[in-house]
Write a structure and sequence with these properties.
Jelly Rolls, 9 helices, TIM Barrel, binds beta-L-fucopyranose
C-alpha cells in the first residue's frame, strides 16, 4: 500500500509574488509613527546646516526630553517614532567616536548630558513604542565625505554605534539628499557621489540586519519607498510594489509606501513663529496615507528646550480622540457575515473577517476573482467608514471593489463612488460619504452592507473588515 500524504491538506492558497519579508510585515503594522527633527538646526534656524557650525551653538535651554515627545505622540495614536540623530550638517546627537562634531563637545551643560539615541530608545521601551533613527548619509562636516574612508570609518561606524542603542529598532531612515556643497573639514566646495554605489548599501543592510533583525532600511536602503510627496497624501490606488505614489502591480520587488509629512506649518526643524496643524487636518492626512495602504511618519519638531510645544500637545491629544471616536468602535463583529463564494478546505469562511484575528482570512477558490461579502445587522447602525485589510503575506491582490449599503434591506445604494475603490493592500479606509476632508457628518443608517470584489490579480484573501 502506498502511504499517501496530501501536499496541501488545508487547500492553502499559493503566494502571488512579490510578498513582504517578516520584517516588512512588522514595519507595516506600525502604521503611524512620529518623526522628530531636532539638532544643530534647532539653534541656527536653518533647515540644512552647512557643516561649519560651532559645537557650542547647540545649546538646549533644558535637558532634551525624548520621553515627552513619545508620550505625546502615543496620545496622538502613534505606535512609534524616529529621531533624527544626525542631519546633513553632520552634528551627532550622541557621543560618537567617529567625529568631534557632537553634542557632548558643546560647552552647554544640557548638551553635555544629551544622548538622544540612548534616551529615545529607553523612553520608547518604557512606553511600549517602536523606535528608530534617521542618520543622514550626506555629511557636510566631514573632511572625508566623497572618499571610501567616509563610508567605512564614519558612516558605517555611526550606523554600528547606533545599533548598539537597541537591537529592537524598527526602521533606519536614510534620506535622499546626497552630495553638494559643504564645509568638508574646511576644504569647502562641492562633492558628488553616486548613492546607488557609494554607501555600500548591500553590506550595510546585511550588517545592520545581523544586529537589528527587524530594521527596515528606508529610502536608499531599499526596503520601503517614499510615496512621492511630503504632504501626508498618497494616491487612492497604492500597490506595495513599484515606486512613487501608486506603485505598480507588475513590479517584482515588495517595496511598501511610507508618507513623510510635517505636522507644523514650516520646515522639518523648529522655527519660532510656526504653527501646528489642527487635528482635523492631521486626521485627513491619516486617512489619505494609512487609509491608502501607506504608513504615515508625521514630524513634530522639538523646540530649543528639547520639547514639543503646548500647541503640539493640544493637537496630538485632539487627534488621538478623533482617531478613537471615529475609528475605534468596530461594528462589524455585531453583524452576521456571509460571502457569495468561499474557498474549499474549511478554513476560509467569511466569519474570519470579523473574528479579530489577523492570521485567519476569507478566500475564494483559485481562479475566482469576484465575490460579494454581505454584513447584516439586527438593528440599523449609524456608520461612517469601512476598513478593509488583505492578507498580504501571500501578496497584494485586489484591483477593484465597490461598497453598497441599504437601510431597509431592499434598496441598495453605492457609497463613495467618487473614490477609486481599486487597491486594498495592508489597509484601506473608505469614508462612505466620499470625502476625507472635515467629513465627520451624520453618517448613514445601515441595516446591511455589501462589499463586492470586482477584480483581483488572483483569488482575493481578506483578513479583516471593520465598520465604524
Ligand atoms: C529630506 C531632507 O533633506 C530634509 O531636510 C528632511 O530631513 C526630510 C525628511 O528628508 O531628504
Amino acid at each position: 500500500m502506498v502511504n499517501q500524504t496530501l501536499a496541501n491538506p488545508d487547500n492553502e492558497p499559493r503566494e502571488v509574488f512579490p510578498v513582504p519579508s517578516e520584517r516588512q510585515m512588522k514595519w507595516q503594522e506600525t502604521e503611524f509613527y512620529a518623526f522628530f527633527h531636532y539638532g544643530m538646526n534647532t539653534y541656527t534656524g536653518l533647515e540644512w546646516g552647512n557643516g561649519d557650525e560651532d559645537n557650542n551653538t547647540f545649546a538646549p535651554t533644558q535637558k532634551p526630553d525624548p520621553e515627552q515627545w513619545l508620550r505625546l505622540c502615543k496620545k496622538g495614536g502613534m505606535k512609534g517614532g524616529i529621531a533624527v540623530v544626525k542631519h546633513h550638517d553632520g552634528f551627532c546627537l550622541w557621543p560618537t567616536e567617529t567625529t568631534d562634531h557632537h553634542c557632548q563637545n558643546s560647552g552647554n551643560a544640557y548638551a553635555k548630558q544629551t544622548n538622544i539615541p540612548r534616551d529615545f530608545a529607553d523612553a520608547a521601551r518604557k512606553l511600549g513604542m517602536k523606535y528608530g533613527f534617521y542618520i543622514s548619509p550626506w555629511d557636510r562636516n566631514s573632511a572625508y565625505y566623497g572618499t571610501d574612508k567616509y563610508v567605512t570609518d564614519v558612516f558605517l561606524r555611526q550606523c554600528f554605534e547606533l545599533s548598539q542603542y537597541g537591537t529592537d529598532q524598527f526602521e533606519m531612515w536614510f534620506d535622499g539628499a546626497n552630495g553638494g556643497t559643504g564645509y568638508y573639514g574646511g576644504a569647502g566646495g562641492s562633492r558628488s557621489i553616486d548613492a546607488n554605489y557609494y554607501y555600500d548599501i548591500p553590506n550595510l543592510r546585511d550588517s545592520v540586519h545581523r544586529v537589528c533583525p527587524d530594521i527596515i532600511l528606508w529610502g536608499v536602503g531599499g526596503e520601503a519607498r517614499w510615496c512621492g510627496t511630503e504632504s501626508g497624501y498618497t494616491n487612492e490606488t497604492t500597490w506595495s510594489m513599484g515606486y512613487g505614489l501608486s506603485g505598480n502591480e507588475n513590479e517584482w520587488k515588495w517595496l511598501p509606501s511610507e508618507s513623510d509629512a510635517k505636522a507644523t506649518s514650516g520646515g522639518w526643524f523648529y522655527h519660532d513663529g510656526e504653527t501646528t496643524k489642527d487635528s482635523e487636518t492631521l486626521f485627513k492626512m491619516y486617512l489619505e496615507t494609512v487609509g491608502r495602504n501607506a504608513t504615515l511618519i508625521l514630524n513634530f519638531p522639538p523646540n530649543k528646550a528639547g520639547r514639543l510645544t503646548t500647541a503640539d500637545s493640544t493637537q496630538l491629544c485632539a487627534l488621538g480622540q478623533k482617531l478613537s471616536q471615529r475609528l475605534g468602535n468596530d461594528l462589524a463583529p455585531l453583524a452576521d457575515v456571509t460571502a457569495s463564494t468561499t474557498r474549499s478546505g474549511g478554513k476560509y469562511n467569511a466569519t474570519c473577517l470579523t473574528d479579530g484575528d489577523k492570521n485567519t482570512y476569507w478566500a475564494t477558490d483559485d481562479g475566482v476573482t469576484t465575490a460579494t461579502i454581505t454584513l447584516t445587522w439586527n438593528q440599523p447602525q449609524t456608520i461612517h467608514y469601512v476598513m478593509l485589510q488583505e492578507f498580504i503575506r501571500k501578496g497584494q491582490r485586489v484591483k477593484g471593489f465597490t461598497i453598497e449599503t441599504t437601510d431597509d434591506g431592499l434598496t441598495w445604494t453605492r457609497r463613495a463612488d467618487n473614490i477609486q475603490t481599486t487597491t486594498i493592500g495592508y489597509k484601506r479606509i473608505i469614508p462612505l460619504n466620499g470625502s476625507t476632508s472635515a467629513s465627520y457628518d451624520n453618517g448613514y443608517s445601515v441595516k446591511a452592507m455589501r462589499i463586492r470584489i470586482t477584480d483581483s490579480r488572483a483569488c482575493p484573501l481578506l483578513h479583516t473588515i471593520s465598520v465604524f
